[in-house]
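Can't paste images in this forum, so I'm doing it all in text. The chain is below; anyone willing to post the predicted C-alpha cells underneath?
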Amino acid sequence: MDKYKNIFIFSIVSSIITYSCIKYRFLEKLLGNDKYKAIYILNNGDEKKIQSTLRNIKNAYNDQRLKDNLQIELIVFGEGVSVYMKSNPSYEPLLLQLKSLGTIFKQCENTIRDRNINKNELFDFVQYVPSANGEIILKQHQGYASIHPW
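Text version of the structure:
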C-alpha cells in the first residue's frame, strides 16, 4: 500500500511542478517577457579577448533567429574592467552601439574596490553589482544563457 501511496504523491508533486512551469512560461509570453536572454562574461583585459567578446555580442544581435527578441547583459570583473575605463576610449563607440541595441553593461563592485577604481573613471552607462559571481548565479537562475567566449 505504501508503494502506491508514494507513487500517488510523486504523481501529484510532478503535476504541480509541470503546471507551475507551463503557467510561468505562459505568463512570460502573455506579458511580453519571453525573450532569449544571455549574460556574457568578461574577466580578461587582453584586447583581442575584449574585441572577441564584443564581436560575439554583436553577432548574436545579427542572428535573424534572435532578431528583436534578445536581451543581453555584459558582466565585467577582474582585468576585464579595462573595457569600461574612460581612460581607454577605444571601446566606447562599440559599447554605445551595443547599448543602442539593448545591451546592459554591468561591473563588479568587488573589482573596482580591490583595484581602487572610482566609478567616475568608468563610462556613465555602466551599472554596478556587488559581485560578478552573484550576478551570474542570479541570471542563470532566471534562465539566462551564460556565455564566456574563448
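The mean pLDDT is 89. The two ends are 55 Å apart (CA to CA).
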